[in-house]
Design goal:
The chain has two domains: 158 residues, no CATH class; 131 residues, Beta Barrel (OB fold (Dihydrolipoamide Acetyltransferase, E2P)). Helices cover 46% and strands 14% of the residues. The protein contains seven helices and six strands. Strands 2-3-4-6-5 form a five-stranded mixed barrel. Helix 1 packs antiparallel against helix 2 and helix 3 runs antiparallel to helix 4. The two termini are 55 Å apart.
């Protein structure tokens, strides 16, 4: 992989991060809202590094452009000098041959040996130069795999976690510290799934009994949901940091229509009796009165109050 392509890969990765974090809110499918700024900074740094690398490499190539001419002149001069020494050696060898044939032959042999050693050194340096250049310019082909997530962020961002993930993990236990505040008289009462769960299983005052509440989440099919008898679960997925540590909060819905998985709905209803209210034995379930489809919120990983 050429260095220019490496710089292009850095720029592409940076643009992918900027696309999902700065130009759109797609990053909220994978991380919490608080991680958005670090993603923007990371994307900008990658773009700047790629551009700086491309500019520096271009300048290096321009400076190296004068190298071949200088090398040719050196080799040419060296060649003439070598030939001059060779002619001088031959003339000297001829004179020594007149003085003694044996002594001239030895001198010529030493000169030939020296020429062979010189050619060997030049060949070795040339081969080393080729190997050295190859080591610096070649990058393992596996590096191209880095391009796949960048292109994915630019062209097709993976969907957010939903019913498939929630159906394969148990609901996260919800705990409440301290005393519960009195519930407002609003009816239906807007409430989060986490607050509803803690009220059902931990509120000794049982303030949730008989109250009409309203919650928003997406549909996770339950056992028998296809037939309409097993109900389904109103679900929210909550992140601690990113999608890798996602946890789900679920409320089983009874009496509502069977809906497709991942459908976002707002449900009103009352607590479905089961177990002892205010203890861990109480079932986290709702007898639905109305089920209304709604748009997915921009940040689906927040267990927020329903709008309206």
């Amino acid at each position: 992989m050429r260095r220019s392509l490496q710089a292009g890969l850095l720029v592409t990765c940076g643009l992918g991060l900027l696309h999902v974090s700065l130009l759109t809110d797609l990053c909220l499918r994978y991380v919490k809202e608080g991680m958005r700024l670090p993603l923007v900074v990371s994307g900008a740094v990658l773009v700047l590094l790629g551009l700086a690398s491309a500019v520096l490499d271009r300048g290096r190539e321009d400076r190296d452009g004068d190298g071949p001419g200088q090398g040719h002149g050196h080799e040419h001069t060296h060649g003439h000098g070598h030939e001059s020494r060779q002619r001088s050696g031959q003339a000297q060898g001829g004179g020594q041959a007149q003085a003694g044939h044996e002594q001239g032959g030895q001198e010529e042999g030493r000169q030939e040996e020296g020429r062979q050693q010189q050619r060997g050194r030049e060949h070795g340096e040339h081969g080393h130069g080729r190997s050295h250049g190859h080591d610096h310019s070649a990058v393992p082909g596996v590096a191209w795999l880095l391009l796949l997530p960048a292109l994915s962020l630019l062209c097709y961002a993976p969907p957010a976690l939903g019913a498939y993930t929630a159906a394969r993990q148990p609901p996260e236990p919800v705990t409440h510290t301290g005393d519960f505040d009195p519930l407002p008289p609003t009816s239906p009462l807007p409430i989060t799934l986490s607050d509803f769960t803690s009220r059902v299983q931990e509120d000794r005052g049982r303030a949730i009994r008989g109250r009409l509440v309203r919650m928003t989440g997406f549909v996770t099919p339950g056992s028998g949901a296809e037939g309409g008898s097993g109900g389904w679960e109103l679900t929210r997925i909550i992140l601690n940091c990113c999608a890798a540590d996602a946890q789900s909060v679920k409320v089983r819905i009874h009496g509502g229509p069977a809906l497709a998985a991942n459908t976002w709905v707002t449900v009103t209803g009352t607590w479905h009796p089961g177990g002892t209210l205010g203890t861990r034995s109480a079932v986290v379930a709702l007898d639905a009165r109305t089920v209304t489809k709604t748009a997915r919120p921009a940040n689906g990983y927040q267990d927020a109050l329903p709008l309206g």
